[in-house]
């Protein structure tokens, strides 16, 4: 994926921020306060799975690339995410047309998905957003490690760069709020080393340091939440939402035309699978049927990425991937409601 300049990840994803990810009535337990640039304040109540009844719009001025990829997948325009990012800032969403990023007809298809208003998350929605963004970092690094192990440093480098270049700025304020030690320097050190000395033996050590730094940041979430199936499933849905967008952006004319997006989505799905394994026993106990559906769908979903190197032809179509992601989300609702 190209990633990030902002994600409200997924939570678009979950509050969803995705990524991922409600009605306008208040919910005492699951509500997030939304402040827009006009200084007006509304309350978007979340439903049982943490998504808003009206999916949070994508801020074209600061959304990370994984969020912008939703627009790319929707319109089927290769590299649209980069084009949107390159034409920032926007005084209004209509400038997507006036700046010749997309046509009027294309804009009409996504106008209800975009905004230039800032959204401030609070409560659990904020925690889900934070954890989802860190999960995206983990996914990038995991696929980077696979590529490094294959002696493919040039392919690995973008995935090492995305966490620091696109995601870190989006989570930095929360890191400070949660008293998490700065680790941007650690990520940059790894990135620079892979770029300049791809065969340096120190890369393994710096990679470990980077992964540990992200893991330490995750500790900024209370342990009770990190072990809660309800909370973790919302994060998983955010990651899968981002993966779905990335996979859709990777496929064009029945072929994998964008290896980076394919690899991004692989990393996100693999980390989502790891998170699910950590709560699987609890989910199975709460709802055996939902657990079986999630586990089966996750197994099928992962078949879309047989290797970090893209296959000659897609194993699953974007439609099939979307359906599996939807099945997982629907069954997650049986736990998160």
UniProtKB/TrEMBL annotation:
Entries under SUPFAM superfamilies matching the protein: PsbU/PolX domain-like
PROSITE patterns: PROKAR_LIPOPROTEIN
Keyword annotations of the record: Signal
Record's signal peptide: 1-20
Protein name: DNA uptake protein
Organism classification: Bacteria, Bacillati, Cyanobacteriota, Cyanophyceae, Oscillatoriophycideae
């Amino acid at each position: 994926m190209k990633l990030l300049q902002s994600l409200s990840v997924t939570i678009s994803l979950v509050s969803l921020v995705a990524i991922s990810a409600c009605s306008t009535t208040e919910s005492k337990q699951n509500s997030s306060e939304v402040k827009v640039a006009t200084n007006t304040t509304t309350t978007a109540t979340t439903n049982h799975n943490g998504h808003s009844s009206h999916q949070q719009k994508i801020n074209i001025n600061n959304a990370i690339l994984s969020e912008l990829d939703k627009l790319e997948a929707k319109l089927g325009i290769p590299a649209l995410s980069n084009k949107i990012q390159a034409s920032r800032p926007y005084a209004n969403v209509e400038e997507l047309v006036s700046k010749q990023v997309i046509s009027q007809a294309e804009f009409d298809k996504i106008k209800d998905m975009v905004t230039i208003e800032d959204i401030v998350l609070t409560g659990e929605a904020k925690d889900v957003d934070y954890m989802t963004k860190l999960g995206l970092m983990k996914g990038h690094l995991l696929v980077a490690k696979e590529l490094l192990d294959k002696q493919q440093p040039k392919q690995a480098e973008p995935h090492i760069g995305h966490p620091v270049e696109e995601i870190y700025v989006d989570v930095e304020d929360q890191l400070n709020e949660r008293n998490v030690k700065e680790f941007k320097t650690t990520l940059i050190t790894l990135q620079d080393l892979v770029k300049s000395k791809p065969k340096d033996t120190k890369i393994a050590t710096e990679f470990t340091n980077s992964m540990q730094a992200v893991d330490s940041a995750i500790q900024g979430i209370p342990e009770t939440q990190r072990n809660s199936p309800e909370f973790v499933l919302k994060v998983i849905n955010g990651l899968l939402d981002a993966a779905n967008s990335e996979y859709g952006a990777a496929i064009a004319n029945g072929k994998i035309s964008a290896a980076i997006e394919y690899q991004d989505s692989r990393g996100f799905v693999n980390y989502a699978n790891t998170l699910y394994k950590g709560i699987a026993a609890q989910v199975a106990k709460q709802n055996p049927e939902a657990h079986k559906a999630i586990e089966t769908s996750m197994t099928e979903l992962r078949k879309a990425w047989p290797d970090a190197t893209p296959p000659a032809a897609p194993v699953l179509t974007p439609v099939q991937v979307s359906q599996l992601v939807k099945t997982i989300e629907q069954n997650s609702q049986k736990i998160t409601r």
